[in-house]
Specification:
Layout lengths: L1 H22 L16 H7 L17 E2 L2 E5 L2 E5 L3 E9 L7 E4 L3 E5 L14 E10 L2 E4 L15 E2 L5 E2 L3 E4 L5 E8 L6 E8 L2 E9 L2
Antiparallel strand pairs: 1-11, 2-3, 3-4, 4-7, 5-6, 7-8, 9-10, 11-12, 12-13, 13-14
Length: 211
């Protein structure tokens, strides 16, 4: 009987934790999701490399990519003869931000905005800039397109001590569009983002999570 009672207690505890986790409010908008996209040509391109578009990737077509030329803790650079893309990051300073808590232990907003990147904890790293130089013209991705995206992962080292990255920069077949891609976050906070540049102007972002 004591064993049965102990098992029941464990089940109740597990259910309580699951219920609490399920009740944590999620304020993140889905307006930037892949499935919300209306631009058919861009949607077809993104389906070739994003998790959000994997269900539409049956018909493959080639996208060119910019080579990785350098990566360090706070910066990664991709470049070829016609374009250079640089992403920079920095440490998150919690003293400069307002954290909204749920039940005093789950971070659900930063500076009154929902955010991506952690499992309801205060992040440690931020994206500070995303800049592309295309055929001599500079395109700056606006801060509003990444201010709520945290825990960027620029690179990692594989078993052979080679530098690898989940980041990529792709170009469409007609070279009108550039896609700057990152796969970031920790645990259940993982997400992917693609910033779209069209005709040397920032167009939009695409964000997906819960893979």
């Amino acid at each position: 009987m004591r064993i049965i009672f102990s098992i029941l207690c464990c089940l109740v505890i597990d259910f309580s934790f699951a219920q609490t986790d399920a009740d944590i409010p999620d304020y993140r908008s889905k307006k930037d999701n892949f499935l919300k996209m209306q631009e058919k040509d861009i949607r077809a391109d993104l389906s070739q490399f994003t998790f959000g578009g994997i269900s539409e990737s049956l018909v493959k077509h080639r996208l060119n990519s910019l080579p990785l030329i350098g990566a360090k803790d706070d910066q990664i650079i991709f470049s070829n003869d016609t374009a250079t893309v640089q992403i920079t990051t920095a440490a998150f300073d919690p003293t400069k931000h307002k954290v909204t808590w749920f039940e005093d232990k789950y971070a659900v907003k930063l500076d009154n905005k929902p955010f991506w990147g952690t499992e309801n904890t205060v992040p440690k790293h931020i994206i500070t800039s995303v800049v592309a130089i295309i055929e001599g013209d500079t395109v700056v991705v606006p801060q509003s397109a990444f201010i709520d995206l945290y825990e960027p992962h620029l690179y990692y080292t594989d078993s052979k001590s080679k530098t690898k990255t989940y980041c990529n920069v792709y170009t469409s077949g007609n070279k009108r569009n550039y896609y700057i891609y990152m796969f970031n976050g920790n645990g259940n906070g993982k997400y992917e983002v693609t910033w779209v540049i069209q005709d040397k102007r920032y167009l939009r972002r695409v964000v997906d999570w819960n893979f």
